[in-house]
Amino acid sequence: MAEVDPGIFAAMKPVEERCVADAGELDAALREADRPFLVRGLVADWPLVAAARCSSGEARAYLLDHARDMDFTVSAGPPGADGRMFYDEAMGMNFRTLRARLPEIFARMEAGEGRPDAHPLYIASTDIHRFFDRLAEDNPIDLSGRTTLDGIWIGTATRIAAHNDFPDNLACVAAGRRRFTLFPPDQFRNLYLGPIDNTPAGRAISMVDFHAPDFERFPKFREALDHALVAEMEPGDALHIPSMWWHHVEGLSPFNILVNFWWRDTPRWLGQPQNALNLALMAIRDLPRHEKEHWRDLFDHYVFRNRDADFAHIPEHARSVLAPLTPESAEHIRGFLLRQLNQ
């Protein structure tokens, strides 16, 4: 895989590195962090990491010993695209999605190593507990009681465009080398995001090619670079990516494994903010300007400002969804929305 032009990225600041002695220190670091941080060797004692340090073949054999006999979803990108999984010229995807057993996928990865005409292969976030037997238990991490979604990413040398995620994330390199390039949430305007409904994996992505940025087409990307952080990671390293931080991800080795743990500090029954944005696009964006201004004021009143004093005129027992939400009131809103959308 081609290296990033050092003339463009030389000014990037490295992600802060922290040392944590135990689960308690990791918990404290995660709770207080509002920026990414890197912990070297946090999962260096995983058997999967030990296998990967021996060879790519040993890492694949270790995973095969734990894999369940079921189809995995794998994306096959185009040769000659430097591993970039992205749009094609027609704004479809430049990769095909296939399903196969893991031994077949690994055989294709091994056969393509070192060949410039090989298709990059990429198993995106896959539920460890569903697709592997005891892989998580044999490679544990203590996250102090957080309820996590645990995913594994397996692939050849690939590049994944900058995107963000709603949950917090602890990304652990198990095999190969990774480069994360990160941007604060407010840099979305300078990353030139693509469509929000036609995406490679459900999240809007930056349209900028980080290996060859077109500054004539994307001039504000220079400003984004002023805020960029970079993390170069080896097997055993772990990176905390706070919610909504943008991250461009590169698997730099011929074979790469990443394990990540996602969690939310807010209850899952609150729903996904992206759904509210999608609905607002349909219902509000194309209204006349004066009507949009009114709805902006209403959103500020009910959602963004949301002060108790604004609702003091309503008896407390009668405030319904204007009171702090509960699982029951959230379900009431969800049911109301479904009925309205189905009319």
Keywords:
single chain, 343 residues, alpha+beta, Jelly Rolls, 9-stranded mixed sheet, 6-stranded mixed sheet, 11 helices, globular, JmjC_dom, Cupin_8
Structure described in brief:
This protein folds into two domains: 260 residues, Jelly Rolls (Sandwich); 73 residues, no CATH class. The chain is 29% helix and 23% strand. The protein is built from eleven helices and 15 strands.
Radius of gyration: 22 Å
Which percent bin holds the helix content?
25-40%
**Spatial shape:** globular
Q: What is the CATH first-level class name of the largest domain?
A: Mainly Beta
Order of helices and strands: HEEHEHHEEEHEHHEEEEHEEEEHHH
CATH architecture of the largest domain: Sandwich
Number of domains: 2
Describe what this molecule looks like in 3D.
- This protein has 343 residues and is α+β, with helices and mostly antiparallel strands.
- It folds into two domains: 6-265, Jelly Rolls, CATH 2.60.120.10; 269-341, no CATH class.
- It is 29% helix and 23% strand.
- It has helices at 6-9, 23-32, 47-54, 56-66, 102-112, 128-131, 135-138, 221-226, 273-283, 289-305, 327-341; strands spanning 13-14, 16-17, 37-39, 71-76, 84-85, 96-101, 121-127, 149-155, 158-163, 168-175, 178-183, 229-233, 238-241, 246-251, 256-263.
- The strands form two sheets. The chain has a nine-stranded mixed sheet. The protein has a six-stranded mixed sheet with strand order 1-12-11-14-9-5, with no helix packed on it.
- The longest helix is centred in the last third of the chain and has 17 residues, at 289-305.
- It is globular and about 70 Å long.
